[in-house]
Design brief:
- There is one protein chain.
- This protein folds into two domains: 173 residues, NAD(P)-binding Rossmann-like Domain (Rossmann fold, 3-Layer(aba) Sandwich); 172 residues, L-2-Hydroxyisocaproate Dehydrogenase, Chain A, domain 2 (Alpha-Beta Complex).
- Helix 2 links the parallel strand 1 and strand 2.
- The strands form four sheets. The protein has a six-stranded parallel beta sheet with strand order 3-2-1-4-5-6. The protein has a three-stranded antiparallel beta sheet with strand order 7-10-11. The protein has a three-stranded antiparallel beta sheet with strand order 12-13-14.
- The chain has twelve helices and 14 strands.
- The protein is of the alpha/beta class.
- The radius of gyration is 20 Å and the shape is globular.
């Protein structure tokens, strides 16, 4: 009995299976080669900030790229943060992580992004009291324009970019637009935190383990217009391959879904700021690891996750040219949209509201860039 429990635990802790046909060859999944494998270089902007302080240690411990892949961290921040960056590097060194092969600390983007395989963009100009949307966009457009051009110039040609700094969807769009040599499919924004929050809220409501909740969706913008959707989710204990029960049937309360669940997920970040007097950091760092791990190592069979991706006009009628969160599966460093999840009238309304917000942000951002729509 004890050995059965241990085998189940081992399966739960194991990294997702790598797609055998299109494995992203840079990631080592062989424990015997851990000491000799080439390190992957991971850049983190806003490297002296709160989220980075959680994220760097998770990556060095193997939570992002798996337990056998060595890493070199590139921590990038403004010149004023140089001393704080050195302190983070010293702490990383003192942890004696077996996977950590080095730490680069810099305020020079060319040095920070040079040769990186993964870039996690945490740094962004924060909204301040009295600041209008266009004012916020003007600050961030300049930042992500310069960073996109730099990544295209000096990063690894197959670099994968995750934008976390808000407004994440539109910041990602600016970066993807300006990083001309980087495929737009290789620039995403993070809605995995909202995805994880959705799973946690459902698990609490139903009194089940969060690991038993599968295939919730977050559609749209990482903002208060996002639409967390449980219509295609289910509860199932994967290690036991037991019976799968639809989430909507188990919840059986449309009022709670629309007036409780959706607003809770949409406003969770603000609730945390009100409680902590600081933004969510550890949960955002964890979500960033989840996002990159699934993208590069693959999603488990039958599981889909939420990612903000560049729209080509192919999926669910969403207009092309914006970054919009959708359900995807991942394999070998690529994502694939889960299609044929037909929206009902309420879902269409919610998705359209988020789409229109993103289109308005794109209009302002491209106007600031001098790019015609």
């Amino acid at each position: 009995m004890a050995s059965d429990r241990l085998s189940v635990l081992a399966r739960q802790l194991a990294p997702p299976p790598v797609c055998p046909s299109k494995a992203w060859s840079k990631i080592n999944v062989n424990p015997e080669l851990m000491m000799s494998a080439e390190p992957m270089h991971v850049a983190i902007t806003g490297g002296a900030g709160q989220i980075a302080y959680s994220l760097a240690f998770l990556i060095a411990r193997g939570h992002m790229l798996g337990p056998y892949q060595p890493v070199v961290l590139h921590l990038i921040d403004l010149p004023a943060a140089a001393t704080a960056l050195r302190g983070v590097a010293m702490e990383l060194q003192d942890c004696a992580f077996p996977l950590l092969r080095g730490v680069v600390t810099t305020s020079n983007p060319d040095e920070g992004f040079r040769g990186v395989h993964v870039a996690v963009m945490l740094g962004a100009f924060p909204r301040k009291a009295g600041m209008q949307r266009r004012d916020l966009l003007s600050k961030n457009v300049a930042i992500f324009k310069a960073q996109g051009e730099c990544i295209a110039r000096v990063a690894d040609p197959e670099v994968r970019v995750l934008v976390v700094g808000n407004p994440a969807n539109t910041n990602a769009l600016v970066l993807a637009t300006m990083a001309e040599s980087v495929p737009k499919a290789h620039v995403t924004c993070m809605t995995r935190l909202d995805h994880n929050r959705s799973k946690a809220q459902v698990a609490e409501r139903l009194g089940v383990l969060v690991s038993q909740v599968h295939n919730v969706i977050v559609w749209g913008n990482h903002s208060s217009t996002q639409y967390p959707d449980v219509r295609f989710g289910h509860v199932c204990d994967y290690p036991k391959r037991g019976i799968s029960t639809p989430l909507k049937a188990m919840i059986n309360n449309e009022t709670w879904l629309r007036e409780g669940f959706v607003p809770i997920v949409q406003g969770r970040g603000a609730q945390i700021i009100q409680a902590r007097k600081l933004s969510s950091a550890a949960s955002a760092a964890t979500a960033a690891c989840d996002h990159i791990r699934d993208w590069l190592l693959g999603t488990p069979e039958g599981e889909f996750v939420s990612m903000g991706i560049y729209q080509t006009g192919e999926w669910y009628g969403v207009r092309r040219g914006i970054i919009f969160s959708m359900p995807v599966t991942c394999c070998g460093g690529e994502y694939h949209v889960v299609e044929d999840l037909l929206p009902d009238e309420y879902s269409k309304k919610m998705m359209t509201k988020s789409e229109e917000e993103l289109a308005a942000e794109r209009h302002d951002a491209f106007d600031l860039l001098g790019i015609p729509l």
